[in-house]
Amino acid sequence: MKALVSVKRVVDYNVRIQVKSDGSGVVTDGVKHSMNPFDEIAMEEAVRLKEKGKVTEIVAVTIGGAKNEETLRTALAFGADRAIHVKEEGEVQPLTAAKAFAAVLKKEEAKLFLAGKQAIDDDANQTGQMVAALLDIAQATFASKVEIDGDKATVTREIDAGLETLEVDLPAVITTDLRLNEPRYLKLPDIMKAKKKPIEAVSFADLGVTPAAGLKTTKTVPPPARSKGIMVKTTDELVEALKSKGLL
Amino acid sequence: MSKILIVAEHAEGKLNGGVAKTVAAAKGVGGEIHVAVFAADAAAVAEQAAKLDGVTKVLAVNNAANANPVAAVLAPQIVEVASGGYTHVFVPGTTFGKDLAPRIAAKLDVQQVSDVMAVHGPNSFDRPIYAGNAITTVETPAGTVVATVRLASFQAVGAGGSASVETVSVGAAVPTHTRYVKLEAQKSERPDLQSAARVVSGGRALGSSENFKVIFDFADKIGAGVGASRAAVDSGYVPNDMQVGQTGKIIAPELYFAVGISGAIQHLAGIKDARTIVAINKDPEAPIFEVADIGLVGDLFQVVPELTGKV
Amino acid sequence: MSVERDVMEYDVVVVGAGPSGLSTACRLKQLAEAAGKELSVCVVEKGSEVGAHILSGAVFEPRALNELFPDWKERGAPLNVPVSGDDIYFFRSETAAFKMPHLFVPKTMHNDGNYIISLANLCRWLGQQAEGMGVEIYPGFAAQTAIIEDGVVKGITVGDMGVNREGEHKPDFTPGMELRAKYTVFAEGCRGHIGKQLIAQYALAQDADPQHYAIGIKEIWTVPESQHKPGLVVHGAGWPLDLTGTSALGGSFLYHFENNQVLVGLIVDLSYTNPHLSPFDEFQRFKHHPVIKQYLDGGTRTSYGARAICKGGFNSLPKSVFPGGMLVGCDLGTMNFAKIKGNHTAMKSGMLAAEAIAEALLAGGEGGDTLDSYPAKFKASWLYDELYRSRNFGPLLHKFGALVGGALNYIEQNWFGGKFPFTVHDLKPDHATLKLASASSKITYPKPDGKLSFDKLSSVFLSSTNHEEDQPVHLTLKDADIPIAKNLPMYDEPAQRYCPAGVYEVVDEGSGPRFQINAQNCVHCKTCDIKDPAQNINWVAPEGGGGPNYANM
Ligand SMILES: Cc1cc2nc3c(=O)[nH]c(=O)nc-3n(C[C@H](O)[C@H](O)[C@H](O)COP(=O)(O)OP(=O)(O)OC[C@H]3O[C@@H](n4cnc5c(N)ncnc54)[C@H](O)[C@@H]3O)c2cc1C
Ligand SMILES: Cc1cc2nc3c(=O)[nH]c(=O)nc-3n(C[C@H](O)[C@H](O)[C@H](O)COP(=O)(O)OP(=O)(O)OC[C@H]3O[C@@H](n4cnc5c(N)ncnc54)[C@H](O)[C@@H]3O)c2cc1C
Ligand code: SF4
């Protein structure tokens, strides 16, 4: 069984985000980028499924400019067998990305589409679900446990009410949550080998994808700073203040 | 004029509290607000939804397939309802809504807006990116607006309304590729730090694991989860998974108590979305007071037990 | 615990992707290509990417770059802001300053033809050039130890991943690889932790003066356009440090960079004597001086970082070669302190090392020997001449203070062309200069105002530093009792103050003082390794990828 894993290049989670003073966006030039952490979890899960003999081939796919090659190299070092680079400069919004992934999934006849539940840059949390919708296949988001059995998968999902279990027919989309696994360290020899593996490049046109009309961002600002509230002198006053706010 | 469809989240016959907040967001858009309840038997929930201020109509969709909320099953039905002239589809920004909304949007061939935190008009919204470290204003293109609503940003509307309830039948075929198996509610004596509505955290000032008892006692009294600063974790007072902050858990409770915590920026990074922050610290100059909604200067070993006795 | 390690062999392994290491790698590839031969070159870098741990001023003298890539302009090197003006101030008090007439500025401090750059961005560019020529660069991997067999350096071992705080293997334990080479080039920058071991093991410094250091703390500000003067360079000496005394020396810089950015920093000599001194707090209060404030007021601070500087110069240069390897750049000590410039000299030293190595290997050499042709090339180059002329600069300042020492330097540099007929030595190492706390006056620093000055932890936040928490502490103590038993009573444990990242704390939870090491905060400046009066702190590389994530420092 073939698994397709989408990987996105994002500003590294350790980097302090700076909003440009002219409100035109967030500073991304010259700051460290890395693979979206939720996608790392998806890669790790794919590799574990392969180690368990459930998956036979892992194909990593990314959409973006030339620099995204780094992210695919990371995926190859993780254990992807092949990598596909959908070359597209500029911003790609979830619906467009989903159309491209759906096209690749179809072309590759993959049974499993693994993706992070969200990318930590736009925090959209949409792409996996959209891929499933476009192909009319099952989805299991926020996965914290995945078991594959023949042409079915049993997925435990971390939802607000607790842990929900779904059974889905394959092909299906699974998006990963934090507790699904802990991604392994990349080994230097694997990184060395990954440098030499070929990467297939395709374009939206090759995939027959026309970008969907996108949301237009008109302004980006830093979040409002918290300000100093009131000071109370005694615990009685504190209890009083909390009660008046309806908090106790 | 806008016509807004809100998808009701519910469980065991109860309307989810997030729906009232989603209605608040919809009121910002203006126009007609309809709530659709998809269930095996939608009557009870529909009745609750009808009471929400601002709701003009409730649609009840009964179908045995809707016994449990499965996005793949709900989406085609919602798409069918939404095609009845709706300009907007709003869903609460819970795991239910986040799972569902993109499935609707893709079917309607529109981009979706995630985590709406402010409404500027029918087509202009604020939403957070980079874990809330930046806020963007976005404009939606032509077509239906599908959005999830960030619940922490809206105050629930009141329940003094009386909208009409209409039972509608939906013909859309629902898929069978996704089957609900079970739901296990997570049970523990103390609420989970990550999802608790109230959290009490202790810092280095506690001095030892034994002393942390004052924190636990107070937390248990008010039904709160318990967190800690890195300094408290590093000193071994409490385990690592209780750390709140940049490298610990990032939480957004309604009420947060920072007890004996100085308020370093790395700690604050974990609570920037907390609704109300209460600080108890003996140093009136502690940076935590610059961001606390309510501050009390005092010795925690005196203040906290006193508080436990009073709440 | 013995573990099975993967091994990879290269012709040359370079430790550190700074200007020196990357210049070595580029030069090697150029020479191999010119000879129509292959040389395999690998660079390891402990930062999460090339540039992540790079911090410099920087006013950049393009001399070495012109030699390495004469067509750097066409290749798009990030040298965009030529120096347009040079101001030098003597700060006499927190409000008073004296601007030095241009006529009296020592020649070495003139900056015509130089550029204001981000060294991190230059390194990223150099990294691209290197990779374009086939150099393999592995960021996120720290060299932990040198492999030494029969007295010959055979390469390095990369740090292990997945070891917990207690030193036990976690489930995802991944042993570090051995990278073996015919020659290994150490380009770790100032106070390289392997370089330090090699200097000791091969007694490389036995004929040199002790190395001298400073800590440089730097911030990047975005300022209102009306206050921005692209290309303006402002240097200063004096307040808040000493102008006439010698107990706390140093200087300041403020460079007007591109996009309304101002780069501001304070360099504090680690020969300071008062254990109560806090370089971080000196820098914070320094920004309130009217000369500095006029540029920063109303701006926002976007980055913060710190790094030690080797300033011993010529007199402190150790021997640069040993069997199988060599030191280049600040790992060796090639900074020219008279100019406060070490980038062009670091690059040049790397290029000279590359030339020596290429000569040997392309002639069929097997490596492993002591390449004396490197120091010979060094001696014949402009680099030697430049460092020789500046040899008295630091010692004169140490002996006579900024004002008188500065005047003597003016005389030497401008009238004698850097060639006083004598050499001034400075033999006291920086860790031995502290006076007892009881004999030193306490310093009370003003509370930060949150506009121009800030506290330490919110500063560290802007370095984007982080380390996986569950790993061995990389600030190792030879004797765990010294901080509390000796340093605290004698010097009020100065680590609490000299560390610019708040790594060291003395906490008292009622049961007596305890020494707390917040290793996660570390910005890899190496000051603790240098200044600890007991020389008890040994900085070793943490798990690769940890440490600051500087963008354009
Ligand atoms: C990369 C990095 C990541 C970090 N991640 C985190 C993180 O995830 N979470 C986190 O918390 N920190 C984190 N930190 C550490 C952070 O900078 C602070 O050091 C830490 O939060 C301080 O913890 P504290 O407030 O408990 O201790 P302190 O700063 O020591 O403060 C103790 C406070 O208790 C008060 N106090 C003392 N006694 C009493 C008493 N009897 N009654 C009342 N008040 C009293 C004191 O006035 C003081 O304000 C991180 C730092 C870095 C550099
Ligand atoms: C505040 C300040 C201002 C300065 N201003 C100027 C100026 O204006 N002009 C100028 O020319 N010079 C200036 N300098 C000096 C200049 O920055 C240095 O001389 C120069 O950076 C030295 O280059 P290097 O390659 O030797 O070392 P570095 O630049 O320090 O690079 C060393 C690299 O090696 C990596 N490394 C270290 N150890 C290991 C290991 N064990 N394994 C893997 N990787 C490792 C490091 O992460 C780093 O990336 C300034 C320095 C400072 C601190
Ligand atoms: S611990 Fe040492 S190396 Fe790290 S920041 Fe502090 S002084 Fe610098």
Automatic annotation (TrEMBL), chain A:
Heterodimer of an alpha and a beta subunit. Pfam families: ETF (PF01012). The keyword Transport applies. SMART domains: ETF. It comes from Sinimarinibacterium flocculans. This is Electron transfer flavoprotein subunit beta. Belongs to the ETF beta-subunit/FixA family. InterPro entries: ETF_a/b_N, ETF_b, ETF_beta_N, Rossmann-like_a/b/a_fold. Keywords: Electron transport, Transport. GO terms for biological process: carboxylic acid catabolic process. Its cofactor is AMP. Signal peptide: none annotated. GO terms for molecular function: electron transfer activity. It comes from the Bacteria. The electron transfer flavoprotein serves as a specific electron acceptor for other dehydrogenases. It transfers the electrons to the main respiratory chain via ETF-ubiquinone oxidoreductase (ETF dehydrogenase). Residues 23-211 form the Electron transfer flavoprotein alpha/beta-subunit N-terminal domain. The keyword Transport applies.
From TrEMBL, chain B:
Residues 4-184 form the Electron transfer flavoprotein alpha/beta-subunit N-terminal domain. FAD binds at residues 204, 229-230, 243-247, 260-267, 281. SMART domains: ETF. It comes from the Bacteria. One of its GO terms (biological process) is fatty acid beta-oxidation using acyl-CoA dehydrogenase. It holds the Pfam family ETF_alpha. Binds 1 FAD per dimer. CDD domains: ETF_alpha (cd01715). Gene3D superfamilies: HUPs, TPP-binding domain. One of its GO terms (molecular function) is electron transfer activity. Belongs to the ETF alpha-subunit/FixB family. This is Electron transfer flavoprotein subunit alpha. It comes from Sinimarinibacterium flocculans.
UniProtKB/TrEMBL annotation, chain C:
One of its GO terms (molecular function) is electron-transferring-flavoprotein dehydrogenase activity. PANTHER family: ELECTRON TRANSFER FLAVOPROTEIN-UBIQUINONE OXIDOREDUCTASE, ELECTRON TRANSFER FLAVOPROTEIN-UBIQUINONE OXIDOREDUCTASE, MITOCHONDRIAL. It comes from Sinimarinibacterium flocculans. Residues 513-542 form the 4Fe-4S ferredoxin-type domain. SUPFAM superfamilies: 4Fe-4S ferredoxins, FAD-linked reductases, C-terminal domain, FAD/NAD(P)-binding domain. Keywords: 4Fe-4S, Electron transport, FAD, Flavoprotein, Iron, Iron-sulfur, Metal-binding, Oxidoreductase, Transport, Ubiquinone. The keyword Flavoprotein applies. Its cofactor is [4Fe-4S] cluster; FAD. Its EC number is 1.5.5.1. Accepts electrons from ETF and reduces ubiquinone. Binds 1 [4Fe-4S] cluster. The keyword Iron applies. This is Electron transfer flavoprotein-ubiquinone oxidoreductase. It comes from the Bacteria. It catalyses: a ubiquinone + reduced [electron-transfer flavoprotein] = a ubiquinol + oxidized [electron-transfer flavoprotein] + H(+).
